[in-house]
Amino acid sequence: MLYFIYNALNASKTSFKIIVMGVQVSNSVAEKENYSNYPQRERKIAERNS
């Protein structure tokens, strides 16, 4: 799923992009459903967006 998003973002020619996800990505507290519980995926997302 993430690679689909990466490919779509790379192919997009718009000047800005908005990504909406069903889980919190930027929350650093690793409880409930957020990407802090999955540090490898959180790093991949951060690396792709920098």
Helix content: 40-55%
> What Rg is obtained from the alpha carbons, in whole angstroms?
12 Å
Order of helices and strands: HH
The domain count comes to: 1
Number of strands: 0
Total number of helices:
2
Taken as a percent bin, the fraction of beta residues is under 5%
Structural class, please?
mainly alpha
On the 0 to 100 scale, the average pLDDT is: 80
Regions with pLDDT < 50 over 5+ consecutive residues?
none
Main beta sheet, described? Answer: none
Give the overall shape. elongated
* Amino-to-carboxy terminus distance: 19 Å
Tell me what you see in this structure.
By secondary structure, the protein is mainly α. It has helices spanning 2-11, 39-48. It has one domain (2-48). It is built from two helices and no strands.
In short:
By secondary structure, the protein is an all-alpha fold.
List keywords for this structure.
50 residues; mainly alpha; 40% helix; 0% strand
